[in-house]
Each structure stands twice: as C-alpha cells, then as structure tokens.
Design brief:
This protein is an all-alpha fold. Among the domains are: about 35 residues; about 35 residues.
Length: about 110
C-alpha cells in the first residue's frame, strides 16, 4: 500500500506545511490590483425597512377603525366554549411548529455561503 510520492518541490513544500509558499510576489500583485472593498449600507436598509413597517402598521391601524377588530376578536375568543378554545390553541401550536420545522428543513438544504 506504500505509494511512491514523486519528489517535486511543491509536494515537498505542502508536506512540510509551510505557512506560506513563495509565489514571487504574485499574490501581493493580485491583491494590489483588486478594487478597494466597498462599505455596505446595511444601516440604511434597516432604517428603510423599519420605516416602511411602521408606516404600514399605522396605516393599517387607522384604516381598521383604530384597531376595533382586535377588541372584537378578543370578545369573541372570551365567549368561546373551553373545548373550542383548546382546539384553537392546539391547532395554532401545531401549525406554528410545522412551519418552523419546514423552515429548518429548507434552511438545511441551502448551500453554505
């Protein structure tokens, strides 16, 4: 099973695990020719998304008669029989769990970036 390893300089350098293989300045030249890194505007994107979300929330609240639907829904839930309320809670929990599981499965099949 012993294979004869050809003795070329690159094989020897890799086996000796040198931290840097001399490339006569090639890497430095390539790095100098690359354009400078550009700053990402993540903060601007976050501000825009938060602003649009707040605007949509305020607009939805105003157009829904100042959130009256929330109080109506709470009143309806308070008058539900206990068995129906339990079934609603159980169904909601199963649905949220299933969606979370699907998200994890979908994320696990994505290639690493």
């Amino acid at each position: 099973m012993d294979e004869v390893i050809s003795e070329n300089p690159l094989d020897r350098q890799l086996r000796e695990a040198m931290p840097y293989i001399d490339d006569e300045g090639f890497t430095a030249q390539v790095l100098q020719r690359l354009p400078p890194p550009q700053r990402r505007r993540d903060s601007l994107r976050a501000v825009i998304l938060i602003g649009v979300t707040l605007l949509a929330s305020v607009l939805g609240f105003i157009l829904s008669d100042n959130g009256r639907f929330i109080t109506v829904a709470i009143e309806r839930a308070a008058t539900l029989p206990i068995l129906e309320l339990f079934a609603l809670a159980l169904t909601s929990g199963i649905l949220v769990t299933a969606l979370g599981l699907l998200a994890v499965i979908a994320k696990s099949h994505e290639p690493y970036s």
